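tmp note - Major facilitator superfamily (MFS) profile domain-containing protein
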Amino acid sequence: MSKFTVKELLGLIKLLRIDVFFLLANILVSLPSIAFNQLVQDKICTNKFSVNETVCLNLEKSEPGYDFIRNQVLKETTSLKLYLNILTTLPSIFISVILGHWLDTYPGHLRYLLASSVFSIICQNVFTIYQCFHFQLDSYSLIYTYLVPVLTGSGTIIQLGTYTYATRKTPAKYRALRFTVLEICLFASLPISSIFGGRILESKPWFPNQLRNYIGVYIVSSICGLIAAVWAIVMIYDSAESVNENVKSDEPGSDEVKNEKKKSLAQVVCDLINPNNYLDAARCIFKRKPNNAHWFLFSSIIAGYVSSMAYVGEQAISYQFAQRVYHFNAEKIGYYGSFPILFLAIGALLGPPLFIHWLKFHDSTVSAISYASMMFNFMIKGIVYDPIVYFLTIIGIFAGVSLVLDRVILSRMIEPTEIGRVYAVTGIIGGLVPTVSSLFYTKIFQATIDSNPGLVYLCSGLLFGYPVINSIILSIARNKWDLELIKKRKQTPTDKEMDKS
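out:
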């Protein structure tokens, strides 16, 4: 186990500036999720089916005579969210290609990209508030509110920019801990958003003539966004500096900074749209590596795609599932839904120190354990039709570790100069994930909502089988692809003594 000096620990604390932004940005995005689902349902219920407002406000607990309308509203909501996923994810493929090369070549632009992405989501909130004041507008008109963040690639910029910054600024021995902190920020934002989003929504409306307090949720979300944008501009000033393995994190990458200053705006634009840059990004994945390590990289990216498809797609039906099976309102969904996220956060926090530093397991071995836990969580939700399932997920507490180790494992397979481009390629593949997974979840849920709504969770649980197998293979063959292990084998005794010191 590596020993950390006081200077190194101070340097690690200094890195947390991106984590604060990541937490606030995720609250900005996640806080309105419950309010948006309920806004869509209320619009469909009152505008399309012309049901009394009192019934629509408690549709999940309506009398059996309203079961058909309730299920139709849930199906319509699921379909609209599918269209939104298609709209928001397909453009991210093109944006990921540009952004990967952009962040590698012009890292100093990062804080402005992050701030602009946040402002675009705030614009989305403003347009949604307009929809709340004009409630009679068709529910499908809510799709237009997503145009600004879609065209600016805000979600892609926040994710890819954050993890590229963290990878560039963090030595290899810190990365498991570094990505754990980021995932903790992500996990922390979800229960905060779920609990407070539900409570604000169910509170007394802040504006007259509103069925629920949708506008209050979007106002609070926008305030978090403004804080995140200011934080990014003021604090993320060192993105052009990269760190070496000796943790001299304050030494700037002088060549990178000079190149940025020399190029004009026209040269930057021409460089970003150069097709050779995109071919180069693909070569980072497919170029032959020693010990055929490129196949391990390719297989791991596919495994990440499959696991993301099973995990991310749940958002398309989770709200409707809780209403259909447990008859929960927005506040209860926010409250109970926070427990599984809390368990995942605890597991993500305790897992790396427990398995990697104490038990000395390799990252890939821990990844296999984590994916198996994730499989259990989904399977049990498809079998047990009782709210107690929210607490049973504690058995799969280490499921969240996989979200950390996916990036750690990839970072140990690639050279530092390839980070942005490889993450861009994974972003391209990831851009397809929400569309495919939403289609997967939506079609199964709509087909089984009346008879067996939990079948969708059983099917998604089985998808984790491939990531489990891939992680086991990586663990067995880790000496062939892990650049850190390969580097240690090649070190001379003098080099090893220098590392220990």
